[in-house]
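Run log, item B.
One chain of 178 residues. Sequence copied directly from the ordering sheet:
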Amino acid sequence: MTLTINVIVALLIAIGLSVGQFLIGGRHESKAAHALASAELALGTVRDPLARQSVQVTAADWEGALSRILRVLSPEQALVRATALRITLAQRLLPVGLSILALGVMAGFLRRDRARDLVLYSSVTFSYVGKFLALTAIAYGFFVALSPFAPPLWTLYPAMGVAASGAATYVGNLPPKL
């Protein structure tokens, strides 16, 4: 239950940071052009022409949905396009991220077996640190996907590794009698 609440709080923090970046920025003309150029550059990394076309179609759908919401925050259409492209490209990384996270959880289960056999000891502190790392990496991933001014999309790869190591630490250090 608390893990679900923590994930929801992480998502709300990421959305709040994204909206805050819109509001604090003030006039977005130069930033919008830079954000759109960065998103278009990230789109250029998709090598397959059919996949690139699919990304553009999905981004157009996201753009239509986001234009009603982001019109209140910023009248700049380039920001909406950049956000739609970032969301679509981050969506393409979701299967890889989930499989890496699952590998981290499996590694934690392997360590937990050793703790159950009393070869290793469980640490509640490490468990909390692991949960914090995993949720922070997930919130960072949401922030990168939702904000046009966020760091580049390639930073999602290290975030996936941090989330997996955090999940492994969390699961591996839970008390054996849980």
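Observations after the first pass:
- The CA atoms of residues 63 and 81 lie 6 Å apart.
- Residues 49-73 form the longest helix (25 residues).
Flagged for discussion on Thursday.
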